[in-house]
Design a protein that fits this description.
The chain is mainly α. It has two domains: about 1-200, Preprotein translocase SecY subunit, CATH 1.10.3370; about 210-400, Preprotein translocase SecY subunit. It is built from 18 helices and seven strands. The protein has a three-stranded antiparallel beta sheet with strand order 6-3-7. Strands 1-2 form a two-stranded antiparallel sheet. Strands 4-5 form a two-stranded antiparallel sheet. Helix 5 (about 80-95) crosses helix 7 (about 110-140), helix 7 packs antiparallel against helix 8 and helix 8 packs across helix 9. The protein is globular, with a radius of gyration of 24 Å. The two termini are about 25 Å apart.
Length: about 450
Amino acid sequence: MANLGESLRNVFKIQELRTRLLFTALLLIIVRIGAHVTLPGVDARLLAQAEANQAANTLFGLYDLFVGGAFRNAAIFALGIMPYISSSIILQLLGAVVPYFQKLSKEGEEGRKKLNQLTRYGTVIVAALQGWGVSVRLTSLTLDQQPIVPLEIQGIGFTLSTVLFLTTGTMFMMWLGEQITERGIGNGISLIIFIGIIARFPHSIVDQFRVTSNLIIGLLMVAAMVAIIAGVVLVTQGTRRIPVQYAKRVVGRKVYGGVTQYIPLRVNTAGVMPIIFAQSIMFIPSTILTFFPESELMQSLSGYFQYTSLTYSFFYALMIVFFTYFYTAIAFNPKDVSENMQKQGGFIPGIRPGKHTADFIDNILTRITLPGSIFLAVIAILPAFVSRFGVTGSFAQFFGGTSLLIMVGVALDTLQQIESHLLMRHYDGFMKSGKMRGRLR
């Protein structure tokens, strides 16, 4: 604890780091304020009562989780940063199959700028379409036959204003995220999602203790959560290092190469994306079935798509394993790695360059991805599992799933950036092992 306190004091001794942290905190506060500013024309009181009856385990509930309750509040930041994420994913998938986008990804800084610009254009289109969908949903919501949006203002004017406010809110949040990345600390886009998820944590604790007042059970829940977080950290940081030897080259009076470096293959290369893909697809049937409350057939089918059903968990886990391999194949190309190594005069000891190297890397990546995908599947279905033991739905989300993986990943990334600032100025960091060993000597 003394070392932790000293590290925290060191953070605020460095003026640049202190300024970056305060700047990041200020922009995140703006994000949270925007999540509570209701769209014009929407009755906030009626909306809160109507949304209280909506199911959390639907596609809308998943979306609301990422935007920190702004979707449920029909706020100007209701879409959050998700249209930007969707646009980025679409372009990333296109980069795997469309030659034009593949070419841009290999053009260095210029190609990256063009891709970023295309991502912004895509964000506007996705946000406008989603904004139109939100306007339709709001005009259809009622409470005791009283509309959330008064009938006299419903129409093209309300639709256009809603699309304008939501699209502008998304673009403004995207700009805030870029400012945090450039002038603050951590990845701005990730931190905006992180703060939205963590903002729900206090409410989830209060809800849980309303149900469970037993101190021993509460302590067991905390211990289980700590153990799960520790496991997520280990898998998130876990890598398989492949040694790469570079031959010596003499250029003039200088000697290049002759060193051994490593290719770090992550156990969880795909990150949280497989869970997001699988969860989005699995929530679609249950969300559609909610539109047919009078049909007995539809309601009987909906039982198989309930968040806590064994059928749901089984297919959910299978889809996560599939998407883990799918996204890993997109994010990491062994052939490109092999070609770059060969151009730089590098080789894996005992493996011939070219196709043999690519096959060797692909074989290792396939093997280490299997336990990573199974771990992701287990973490994803944990909330449904623990909810069977008296844990409320909102609090169960912090035992696993998308929210936990995002929180751990963003926290580790931000902590490492703070660590690098401390080490550059010869201060002890938070970590005392591995490459980050504290004070430089």
